[in-house]
Amino acid sequence: MSILRSDRNPIIKPEDIKPSRPDFRVIGVFNCGVTRFHKEVLLLMRVAEMPVNPNPKKILVPEMDIETKELNVIEFDKSDPSVDYSDPRVLKTSKGKFLTSVSHLHAARSKNGIEFNIDDKPAMLPENEYEKLGIEDPRITYIDDRYYVNYNAISDITGVSVCLASTKDFKEFTRYGVIFMPDNKDASIFPEKIKDKYYALSRPISPEFGEKDIWLSDSSDITAWGNHRLLMEAREGYWDSAWIGGGAAPFKTKEGWVEIYHGVSSDERYCLGAVLLDKDEPWKIIARSEKPIIEPEAPYELRGFFGNVVFTCGALFEEGVVKIYYGAADTYIAYAEIKLEEIYKQMK
Amino acid sequence: MSILRSDRNPIIKPEDIKPSRPDFRVIGVFNCGVTRFHKEVLLLMRVAEMPVNPNPKKILVPEMDIETKELNVIEFDKSDPSVDYSDPRVLKTSKGKFLTSVSHLHAARSKNGIEFNIDDKPAMLPENEYEKLGIEDPRITYIDDRYYVNYNAISDITGVSVCLASTKDFKEFTRYGVIFMPDNKDASIFPEKIKDKYYALSRPISPEFGEKDIWLSDSSDITAWGNHRLLMEAREGYWDSAWIGGGAAPFKTKEGWVEIYHGVSSDERYCLGAVLLDKDEPWKIIARSEKPIIEPEAPYELRGFFGNVVFTCGALFEEGVVKIYYGAADTYIAYAEIKLEEIYKQMK
């Protein structure tokens, strides 16, 4: 597999982002949707922040006050035996489960696709009870002169759901609320109708039977979805053996729809691969990557807030080349190019 | 609370139902949807069957072969240490999780609402991969000369999802597939549009945050659903403290929409209560039962395949009286009447 990682990788780092408030620090800028916007490449990035913590005996976690819609900082003692901070991403306490960071969405723009100007202000901040613990992992789909943005909304009240918004300028956003009920994440919307229906991928979870697979849904209006069907499952013995989830918004090729998705192995290593879906009947799988397209190898992919992770929410397909923007180690944004024919060669 | 249980309770028992095949026995006939059909009361009942098992050293579990769509019987040794049969409903094995029984839907008809003629043949049998381990807990909603039936579809491949079908005669059914992705169950559809939208309740599960609450969704066409909103949560210190789920299809009263739902306490005792929703804005809760309407008290509610359970999928509201058909101890169908005003009295 011949893949070109940018020699500027990681192309965006936490220190490139201004915190959304002075008492927060940016600990990660990673999973990002991507689109062409006014001839530039526009990224809508997940920015994760933690409260600045001057006291090493304490743990500070952010949480929205549902009444005021303000983010508060809650303090826990590290010496409290009921506080479990073994997972760097999650804090388990007698008061419930918190995320150690809170994410919002932030835009960056580039003429050459590598060097980005980062907006001063966040594009979207969490603002309601579904988004109480943050908004994450946006995907962008351009339809009828509008950019649709779906993202994961995290809340200890409502769980993990997929929400939809749209924008024309990446400054003002219209929210449509929850399109896929909890727990569901990693949705992506196809950029055009196929025989009068929009299609979307998503990844519902079945706690009862331990399933975390990719489903396909259809819609007449992008906001109400039905006809939900299991599309593809994790594969025993492969790089995507433990669970899978959608990645970039699918793009159309001569051969069909290509979806770059993530697969996770039993040791929680996140890789990227592709699936080719029938052009007219996207519930039919034509081929699937035998091996990953990208796997964690570079230092910035191996080490970070949560290492051994490559994860994409956006890719551009231009002149036969797939340009993948991806989160590395839940900390950075990196960039890689791969020819579509290379992806096809490794599919079965 | 003045509630009238029928002195014929349980009104339908397992021995009243002919098994769907000679090597199966009926172990439960319980949660049922209800409607008026040709002036009769029609129940669509969940019938649970187990393979007849002549060998006490074995455990036999039913499972659909996805290729042939036939139900097979799989055999496990009780002496196998990897087989866990501590829960009577579920068998955990090294080959995965099975249900010990498989459910289908079966119709019964009555002129007086108490004495039922039971159809010879099942109305709906599991028939696809979403229904691999059975179909359960139907609710009926009559809209535009059609009876819509939503039910829980159980599968170790796809999880627990809510499926929709419709019928005009309870003999031929049109399936619309999955309307709410896994894990979700206990949906019920409102019988009429409210300001141009259909509404439905459902109960998604968030494994990530342990939430099992009732949500409200809307739709233009009954098959594609969006605008999903958290409607109501379990209440600490109440009869519905552990989790809740929708029950009968909501019915309209002068004061608003009444939903009879089930609430579960931390010791897994299932009771029934009611919630009153605003007539025009059903996402607004006006009042909710302080105490259960029905709680397991009668012998047939306390003891059975899974005891301490009253659970409804259907109620008729006629002349000020709520006529509740309910599953008792996951074994029987029972009947009770309660005046609407009695329900209102205990609400807050």
Number of domains of chain A: 1
Unreliable stretches covering 5 or more consecutive residues of chain A: none
The major beta sheet of chain A can be summarized as: 5 strands, antiparallel
Listing every helix as H and every strand as E from the N terminus to the C terminus, the arrangement of chain A reads: EEEEEEEEEEEEEEEEEEEEEEEHEEEH
- The first-level CATH class of chain A is given as Mainly Beta
Beta-strand level of the residues of chain A, as a percent range?
A: over 45%
List the SSEs and their pairings.
Two copies of one chain form a homodimer.
Chain A: E1 4-5, E2 24-37, E3 40-51, E4 58-65, E5 70-77, E6 90-93, E7 96-99, E8 102-110, E9 117-118, E10 135-143, E11 146-155, E12 159-167, E13 173-180, E14 184-189, E15 198-206, E16 211-212, E17 214-219, E18 225-232, E19 243-245, E20 251-253, E21 256-264, E22 270-277, E23 285-288, H1 299-302, E24 310-318, E25 321-328, E26 332-339, H2 340-345
